[in-house]
Amino acid sequence: MGITGWWQWVIVLVIVLLLFGRGKIPELMGDVAKGVKNFRKGLSDEGDEAKEDAAKTVEHKSDEAVETTTAAKKKS
After folding, report:
1. Cα distance between residue 39 and residue 75, in whole Å
2. Burial 14-25 (b: 16+ CB within 10 A, else e)
3. Among 20, 43, 52, 76, who pairs with 24 as Cys (CB 3.0-4.6 Å)?
4. What are the C-alpha distances in Å from 16 to residues 29, 33, 53?
5. pLDDT tens, 24-74?
């Protein structure tokens, strides 16, 4: 049981106008648009952080540190 007829849409529109008023509806739609924009920005920021994490490399010990560790293990 959905809204199918054009006259039913007119009734819904009249009820919405009575509840919110003519000036309030554009303001509400602007707030919705800002919310969607911020949501998309958040998603793109999260994607950028994931790319940065993937680009980071693991630091390896220098050859001297490896030799020192190997020599210490041989002594014990």
Report:
1. 59
2. eeeeeeeeeeee
3. 20
4. 13, 19, 47
5. 878 888 999 999 999 999 888 877 776 666 555 555 555 566 566 666 666
Residue 3's contacts (CB-CB under 8 Å, 6 or more residues apart) are 9, 12
CA-to-CA distance for 31 and 54, rounded, in angstroms?
35
What residue type is assigned to position 55 of the chain?
A
pLDDT at 71: 64
Joined tokens for residue 25: 């509806």
* Number of residues that this document lists for the chain: 76
CA angle 35/20/27 to nearest 5° reads 35
Distance separating alpha carbons of residues 13 and 5, to the nearest angstrom: 13
pTM of the model: 0.41
